[in-house]
Specification:
CATH architecture of the largest domain: 3-Layer(aba) Sandwich
Distance between the termini: 48 Å
Number of domains: 2
CATH superfamily of the largest domain: Glutaredoxin
CATH class of the largest domain: Alpha Beta
Strand order of the largest sheet: 2-1-5-4-3-6-7
Strand content: 15-25%
Largest sheet: 7 strands, mixed
Oligomer: single chain
Helix content: 40-55%
Length: 212
């Protein structure tokens, strides 16, 4: 009986241990970021994070990150175009699954711009980008990318996540967790109604919040 109970208790003990390790790892990661040092520890990743209360800024915030050419580039470098701003990392499995879909989306919709923000160092991203053949701009940062996420009002606890804006630079919503084609299609439908005057900005934001 004691042996059976011991075996039954093991999954629970393992779950508790893994949960504690994840929390400690995350705390250590955030402490390192706050201290200004670099780290190879990954950010906690979830494929389907639960929606949380968010306060997005009304307009696209101003920040600059290094691009694939090693030059500082502003997130406002694409005026007059809706943006799909995708935060990702080379070590994040769900992020890598999104990239072919985002490439196809960019190819099909030249009237908007997908912007990838890699939470990595340039040395990590550049060989990966050469192999991947991005057809949309990629900006790169580690601590700076975390700060960029904060400027959108997004708590950086999971990757991937995606910000949506309209052509006037107004933020419309955020998707936390892996992005799927249906969310991109919903974004296009909201954009079409917004641009045609069939929906106000507040209505567009409410609709995106409802499907993301």
């Amino acid at each position: 009986m004691g042996e059976v109970m011991g075996r039954a208790a093991r999954p629970t003990l393992i779950t508790v241990a893994l949960s504690a390790a994840a929390v400690l790892g995350y705390v250590a990661y955030r402490f390192t970021l706050d201290d200004g040092a670099t780290t190879d520890a990954p950010v906690a990743v979830t494929q389907e994070a639960p929606a949380a209360a968010r306060t997005l800024p009304d307009e696209l915030p101003e920040f600059s990150l290094v691009n694939l050419d090693g030059e500082q580039q502003s997130i406002r470098s694409w005026p007059g175009k809706p943006l799909v701003i995708n935060f990702w990392a080379t070590w994040c499995g769900p992020c890598l699954r999104e990239i072919p879909m985002l490439k196809a989306f960019q190819e099909a919709h030249g009237d908007l711009t997908v912007v990838g923000i890699a939470v990595n160092t340039p040395d990590e991203v550049q060989p990966f980008a050469a192999e991947m053949g991005f057809n949309y701009p990629v900006l790169i940062g580690r601590n700076d990318a975390v700060n960029a996420a904060g400027s959108f009002g997004v708590e950086f606890y999971a990757l991937p996540f995606t910000i949506f804006t309209d052509a006037d630079g107004r933020t419309l919503g955020v998707r936390t967790g892996e992005l799927h084609q249906e969310q991109l299609d919903d974004f296009l439908a909201v954009l079409a109604d917004l641009e045609a005057g069939r929906a106000s900005v507040d209505e567009a934001r409410a609709r995106i919040a409802g499907v993301m």
